[in-house]
Amino acid sequence: MHLYGTQSVNELGHLTIGGVDTVDLAQVYGTPLLVYDIALFRERAIAFKETFKKAGIKAQVAYASKAFSSIAIYEIAKEMDLSLDVVSGGELYTAATADFPREKIHFHGNNKSYTELQYAFDEKIGCIVVDNFLEIEMIKEISEARQQKMQILLRVTPGVNAETHDFITTGQEDSKFGFDLKNGQADDAFLKLYNHPYITLLGMHCHIGSQIFETDAFRIAAEALMYKMIEWREKFKFTCSVLNLGGGFGIRYTVDDKPLAPSKYVEEMENVVLSMTRKHNYPVPEIWIEPGRSLVGDAGTTLYTTGSMKEVPGVRTYVAVDGGMSDNIRPALYGAKYTAVTANRMMAPHSDRVTIAGKCCESGDKIIEDAFIADPEEGDLIAVFCTGAYTYSMASNYNRLPKPAIVFCENGHDQLVVRRETYEDIIRLDVPLQKTGQEVSL
């Protein structure tokens, strides 16, 4: 049985996270409950930063907060001296509320609205990652009207097909993101921006996908961007000061996943950049990366309580829990795999093969189809590992189910950081029909 971070089993046979008994957590906060091992988040952040430090390369490690956004996680990222990758006005507002250093915020997105861009200027953030030609014109208009400077990166697609699920690969030529590096779009974008009086072009950005386990794709992408940077210097006497190679570093969801240590991905990028800068006498750019899943993914564990069970003879046994696709859409969306344990009976043999099903009215609401847990009993506490990324951030109120609470655990202490939604929260934005005294025929 593989445990993550600070997870362990106490003398009662209960799973603990951050030194806190998960059975106690479930009793205090209820279930479903998303629990974060904050020490593991800190450990991963330090590992990324230390690898750059050892190589003597100036760098920024930006938490890709689309994986999980909240005021509290932004506050932890600030404590760890990380930068922050946001992708919407809502994430930027959350960051501002957390008083995250504005100069370390990078704003992404393939369809930023004019209002969102104005908001970025209002907050005087550190960088906008420009994704398309319409955005270029909007940024020009806003900066000129305000006579306000803004730093930008150009997001490019380097034509790299990373080995991952089609829904989460983003670096290939056929992508909704960025300027194509091969068909001249990136050059056209560069020419529109590189000598603008209010816009400072720092360099280029790419993101080739998510949940990637090998380094070849990162190496090829780094080479492609470096060659373009060298070409721009030769043609236009322009030197890029920043090379942002994105994120997408894989984590271990099941025993079949074989992720590399954070340092391995970073070292491969460093080797490519240092080799090419030496060969072409190019100043070593500041390297930015954007880990999201690899910081919070396996730091998160979801706790569920079991309810009804159904045996289909010769086929499977269903064990239903009090959550499902409303708090974790990933299995239904793209077949994501997870590992689970019976958190209140960790010492019991985990040999019963069951399907852990959610409570949503969809046949596809299955969290794990082949879960090996202790002989299931009603009221068991099921812990599903590695749910820290793209679960709560993609959660919904499907079937009008409230979103779960979130707790941070560290050094034997637990703290509620996102309260559980109530039924009142769910109807808060509903507007009843106006009473006119006449029947309305629908």
Task: Lay out the secondary structure.
Blueprint: E1 8-9, E2 15-17, E3 20-21, H1 22-29, E4 33-37, H2 38-55, E5 59-64, H3 71-79, E6 83-86, H4 89-97, E7 105-107, H5 114-123, E8 127-130, H6 133-146, E9 150-157, E10 179-180, H7 185-193, E11 199-205, H8 216-236, E12 242-244, H9 262-279, E13 286-289, H10 293-296, E14 300-312, E15 316-321, H11 330-334, E16 340-342, E17 352-357, E18 366-373, E19 381-385, E20 405-410, E21 413-418, H12 423-426
Parallel strand pairs: 4-20, 5-6, 5-13, 6-7, 7-8, 8-9, 9-10, 9-11, 11-12, 12-13, 15-17
Antiparallel strand pairs: 1-2, 2-3, 4-14, 14-15, 14-19, 16-19, 17-18, 20-21
Domain Orn/DAP/Arg decarboxylase 2 N-terminal: 42-296
Binding site for substrate: 293, 330, 334, 362, 390
Function: Specifically catalyzes the decarboxylation of meso-diaminopimelate (meso-DAP) to L-lysine.
Task: Kindly describe this structure.
The chain contains twelve helices and 21 strands. With 442 residues, it is of the alpha/beta class. It has two domains: 8-37 and 297-426, Beta Barrel (Lyase, Ornithine Decarboxylase, Chain A, domain 1), CATH 2.40.37.10; 108-291, Alpha-Beta Barrel (TIM Barrel). Strands 4, 14, 15, 16, 17, 18, 19, 20 and 21 form a nine-stranded mixed beta sheet that branches. An eight-stranded parallel barrel has the order 5-6-7-8-9-11-12-13, surrounded by six helices. It has a three-stranded antiparallel beta sheet with strand order 1-2-3. 46% of the residues are buried. The model is unreliable at 164-172 (pLDDT under 50).
